[in-house]
Amino acid sequence: MGMGIISLLARWVTGTTILSSPESMIKYGVFGGIGYAFLGAIALFVFSFIGKKVRQEYPDGLTIGDYLKKKLHPLGYWIMICILILTSLHILYIQSMTASTLFHFLFNLPLYIEIIIFISFCVLFAGFGGLKMIHGLAGFQVITMFAAAILIPLYFFVKEGVQPVYDGIKLYHPYMLVIDHYDLWGFLFSGLLVGFGQFFFDITSWHRLFMIESKKLPLTFSISGLIWCIFPLSFSCLFIIVIFTGGFTDIQSILVGLANKITTPFFFILFVLCAFNAITSTFGAVLHSLASLIIINIIEPFRTIKNDQKKIKLAYLLSVMIGAIIFFATIIQSKKIIELLFYSGNVYSALLFPILVIVFSKGKVGNYIPISIVISIILSYIVQPYVGEFQSIWLSLLFSIVIIILGFTIQFFSKKESVNMS
Fold it and tell me: Which residues cross the membrane (predicted)?
């Protein structure tokens, strides 16, 4: 269970966690940072019950693709596999963007050099090192993250004091202490939908789901959620320490302010190690899970690979190809971290209800379930310019619910009519 918790924390304490929780705090106030932390914890807690149901129904799976193959017809299965690959690539892209932010802060090198160094390291460590290397480094990575999350904020609050920090925020950024704000509630509700969808459809979490002992699943995921929420709360506190003495422009200016505040080399190295480990552990875990999914669920159904050595070589090749795709995507298109999270929000929101239907339905489900996801995503992006970002996320969920109810109704009456005719 301890290894399961470490493995999940190594996946979910990401560079995004370190940078996007302060960004959400900056944009939506202190309660935005607090809400970000608890939304992730709740999502992991709820996923523990879904995981238990999945393992009871299908104990011998290896990937989410195995489970989807059991529950879906061929058309629906391939639709879900395509969505799964795209969402996994998007997660890798977000980590690459986060790495570029960290590297730019440390070295100020050209973007393509920063990204190629980061991706090359991750491909060697996870793509070539495999699950053994990922699990071998997970303990060290989680220890450095914990040390940074606990020691650095504690050091600052002992040094500066709590009251001066509060007074500084109240003086320079009073809007951050306001809870009765429409955007905050929109952010929290949208974040809940996006977080649930992301956790429920995460390729690595499902990979770990089939590796952890079945009876220990609920407790493992629940404890992981409780521990995980410490990290965004801690890093939000850390960035509050930076901005309480004046203004800021963006996350880069806050990182520079943090570097100026951390006068002790030990704490600066600890912060850099924490951020780097968070980014690389997530990138490595998703990269390995995605390569495994492609081999097991896409290549092997069409071409049997009998030799394990050939599978390993194919995994190496896939890791390099995926790394190249993420490299070019990062170079071509760059956005802020918080924008990246919610840009894909319509996708995860559309996935939420269909995933629950697939898991809690008996036997195979109709193709209209996966098709509802595609239609909901398209419709939500069409209406987004007219209704706003958060509202389009809510509508994405609503569209999928309506389409599934209509599909179920049509299927029910069709069966009833065929029975009456017979």
Answer: 30-51, 72-93, 105-126, 138-158, 184-204, 225-246, 266-293, 314-334, 340-361, 368-387, 393-413
